[in-house]
Structures are given as C-alpha cells and as structure tokens.
Write a structure and sequence with these properties.
Elements lengths: L4 E2 L4 H7 L3 E2 L9 E2 L4 E6 L2 E7 L1 E6 L5 E7 L1 E3 L9 H6 L1 E6 L1 E6 L6 E6 L6 E10 L3 E10 L11 E3 L1 E2 L4 H6 L2 H5 L10 E8 L12
Parallel strand pairs: 2-5, 5-13, 8-13
Antiparallel strand pairs: 1-3, 1-10, 4-5, 6-7, 9-12, 10-11, 11-16, 12-13, 12-15, 13-14
Length: 209
C-alpha cells in the first residue's frame, strides 16, 4: 500500500500539466503527503485541495466515537464494495504525484524507498473522491497488484499509474472501462532506496479496503 507520496509542483504547475482550472487561491499543502493531510487532485476539470483518505468511523470499547481513520488506499478488487462503489462509479479523479514511497527493512528500522517515473517530475495516479462530514472533500488512491512491474520486489501492491492517453478513460469512462486501466505499470520505474527513517515526519498507519 502507499502511505506516503511526494508532490513537488505548485498548484499552477499542476493546473498547466493537466490542462485544468486553478481556483484555490491561498491553498496550503506540503511536498510530502501523509494520510489525513491535504493534497491536490484534479477533478471536474479543476485542481482541488482535499484530505487524503476516506473517513472510517471508529468506536471505542464503550461505544464512544473515536477519531475517524483515513482510508487512503482503495484496492482494485474492492471497488465494487459499498465503501467505494458510488465514488468509483461517479467521482473519479487524477492524483498528481512526483514519487511514492514504501517501507523496507527490519521492523523498527524501516527506511523509505521512493519510486517514480524516469524523466517525469509529475505523473497521474488513479483516484476516487467524495464529500464527507468528517473530513470535508476527501480522496483515496487506487492500488493494484504490482506483479509484472519493476516495483514488484519492493511491495506486492502499487498505485494505478495512468498515462496521459488514459486520463479521459479514467475520469469519464464506464466503470468497466475504468477498471480495465487498473493494472500494474509496465514501463520503467526509478527506484531510490534511501537511509531515511520511515517514521520520520508524520507517516501513520492507514487502512486499505
């Protein structure tokens, strides 16, 4: 799953890259995006700021409501489930990404391995979005089996990466057409294994449905 990614472009650069309208004004977001924090998406022809993760309502042992958990990854094989179905059918988006990270190494000493596309400082990941009472506008990243991709040795799943030719198919195609795009990336992937601690910053545990 993906619990951390980078997006190092400005909102104006994102708008130009995806031929979208930028109406965010003074929106504030970081270069590294963590579950439960704001990121940029392209939806409805606009660059929009949303929270990364659909809220999962949690309750304590006594039935007391707990802080909702951000479900920031949506498994391709679960897109027909109640949790995702209506967003997948009606509200798909593009998530601008510069690189995504996975944890590698022994427990307690995991480090960050970053993956990106060669010679591309920005690319699109398939996403779904909705409006929620808990987080307001929110989005989740669609994940697929990584078998056959260059990232398969790093993690068994990877984000659904979209070529420019597939943007319209993801955004406005039928559910069957969109689901057909949810395959592992067959092109080259740049892998950067670092000594950065995985727990540096605000990386948190997040759900994948």
């Amino acid at each position: 799953m993906c619990n951390l990614y980078r997006m190092t472009k400005s909102k104006d650069e994102v708008a130009k890259w995806f031929d979208a309208i930028e109406t965010l004004g003074g929106a504030n977001f970081a270069d590294e995006i963590y579950p439960g924090y704001p990121g940029l998406v392209v939806a409805g022809g606009e660059v929009r700021q949303m929270t990364w993760g659909f809220p999962l309502v949690m309750k304590g042992k006594n039935g007391q409501p707990l802080k909702p958990k951000p479900v920031n990854n949506a498994r391709t094989d679960k897109l027909d489930s109640f949790f995702w179905r209506y967003s997948f059918e009606e509200r798909r988006c593009l998530i601008p990404v510069s690189a995504w990270a996975e944890a590698q190494g022994p427990k307690g000493a995991k480090t960050r391995t970053w993956m990106s596309l060669p010679d591309q400082s920005l690319f699109a990941v398939a996403g779904v979005w909705r409006e929620s009472d808990e987080f307001g506008l929110c989005y989740s990243m669609v994940m697929t089996d990584s078998a056959g991709s260059a990232s398969a040795d790093i993690h068994s799943r990877m984000p659904v990466l979209l070529s420019q030719a597939d943007y319209d198919g993801w955004l406005s195609g039928s559910p069957d057409e969109a689901k057909a795009l949810c395959t592992a990336w067959k092109g080259d992937i740049t892998i950067d294994a670092t000594d950065e601690s995985w727990t540096r910053g605000k990386v948190s545990q997040a759900s994948l449905f």
